[in-house]
Structure to design on (423 residues):
């Protein structure tokens, strides 16, 4: 038991302790949606409702088992098409749902509240479908897109390499033109959905001297000769997203499988990064919200020295801080989502949202565990907090490390016009 916990448990109730409700609301800390709901259409609200149902009936009951067995959430992906969550970013005229950034962020918040890793797997698949719908040639749209929309194949995004992370333009996986084929060699790392993906969006360098302008995006079938699906990673948490790598040894791919041509591919990869960072903020909001709900319920039902744990002012204040910072991360996240939806530049606001949400998710989920005492540390008995804490740790890396967000923010600080110096 920590010193802080010991002090809390030794407190005797006093008149300064405010009472806690005997039946706490299940939506603790989620009294508002940070102004998000008035930016979604009636159709989008139904999609959000579908996500709530999917999280409760498919993800929540199985999430801990996926983590315990350290495997991909295959059951969730199998159920995804029936829930209408495989083509969220695909235009309606191509068979998709065509949701906007605000509604998409709300969907991901709800899915992550059940399990962040499963939610991130959904994001990656949807991004693959979007890329094919918006950048693919007629054949890819006619043949591959329907298979992604129907859930017949799972999509994956392959940019990161064993020696290349934040400096994405420095990739070394090569693609050499040979007549009407690409010959791909190299290795990709940290691939979400790697264990089950059936369509790979591979970013490769065609001309190292050209830097990022030499990068091309190619759709690769993982069953082609020369493609090796590497062992899945053993992680601190997040196994439901099936993270692993791929090796390519002189893999021949028809040039008709080019998704984004040389000169435009790197920009295409970066164009969605602001939205990706907004979605990380939304997923962090989901796991913090869920953790707060669990902590509120537990402390209200746990007796201690003649009252409940929730009657202790120290506990109340800890969870009040969680609620405040949850509200702040949601406001930052949905401000950036609105900017994207309105066609504005959200690079700075998305960086603020992701940085703040990723940091505070780790701190505040730990606080929720702390007020539950040792019970907060248990993975069984339906407690999702340890799994959510591991997921929160992951958000410090995905879609740009926290330090990269500081780079984005700092650049804007010095780009602003200088005001008068103090005399």
């Amino acid at each position: 038991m920590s010193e802080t916990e010991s002090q809390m448990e030794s407190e005797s109730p006093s008149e300064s302790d405010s009472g806690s409700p005997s039946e706490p609301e299940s939506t603790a800390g989620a009294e508002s949606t940070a102004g998000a709901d008035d930016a979604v259409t009636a159709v989008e609200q139904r999609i959000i409702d579908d996500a709530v149902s999917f999280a409760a009936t498919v993800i929540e009951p199985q999430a801990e088992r996926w983590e315990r067995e350290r495997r991909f959430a295959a059951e969730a992906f199998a159920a995804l098409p029936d829930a209408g969550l495989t083509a969220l970013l695909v235009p309606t005229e191509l068979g998709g749902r065509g949701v906007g950034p605000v509604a998409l962020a709300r969907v991901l918040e709800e899915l992550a509240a059940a399990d962040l890793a499963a939610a991130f797997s959904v994001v990656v698949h949807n991004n693959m479908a979007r890329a094919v719908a918006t950048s693919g040639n007629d054949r890819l749209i006619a043949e591959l897109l329907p298979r992604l929309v129907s859930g017949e194949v799972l999509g994956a995004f392959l940019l990161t390499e064993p020696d290349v992370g934040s400096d994405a333009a420095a990739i070394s996986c090569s693609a050499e033109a040979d007549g009407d084929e690409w010959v791909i060699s190299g290795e990709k790392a940290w691939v979400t959905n790697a264990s089950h993906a059936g369509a790979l969006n591979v970013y490769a360098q065609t001309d190292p001297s050209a830097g990022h302008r030499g990068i091309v995006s190619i759709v690769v079938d993982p069953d082609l000769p020369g493609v090796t699906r590497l062992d899945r990673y053993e992680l601190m948490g997040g196994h439901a997203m099936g993270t692993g790598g791929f090796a390519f040894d002189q893999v021949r791919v028809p040039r008709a499988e080019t998704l984004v041509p040389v000169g435009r591919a790197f920009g295409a990869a970066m164009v969605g990064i602001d939205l990706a960072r907004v979605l990380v903020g939304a997923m962090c909001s989901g796991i913090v919200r869920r953790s707060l709900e669990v902590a509120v319920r537990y402390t209200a039902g746990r007796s201690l020295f003649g009252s409940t744990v929730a009657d202790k002012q120290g506990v109340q204040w800890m969870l009040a801080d969680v609620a405040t910072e949850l509200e702040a991360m949601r406001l930052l996240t949905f401000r950036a989502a609105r900017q994207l939806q309105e066609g504005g530049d959200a690079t700075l606001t998305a960086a603020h949202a992701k940085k703040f949400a990723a940091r505070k998710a780790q701190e505040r989920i730990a606080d929720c565990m702390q007020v539950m005492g040792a019970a907060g540390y248990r993975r069984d008995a339906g407690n999702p907090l340890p799994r959510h804490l591991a997921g929160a740790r992951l958000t410090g890396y995905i879609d740009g490390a926290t330090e990269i967000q500081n780079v984005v923010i700092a650049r804007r600080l010095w780009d602003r016009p200088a005001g008068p110096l103090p005399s």
Strands lie at 155-158, 174-178, 181-191, 199-205, 215-220, 227-229, 244-254, 258-260, 303-304, 307-308.
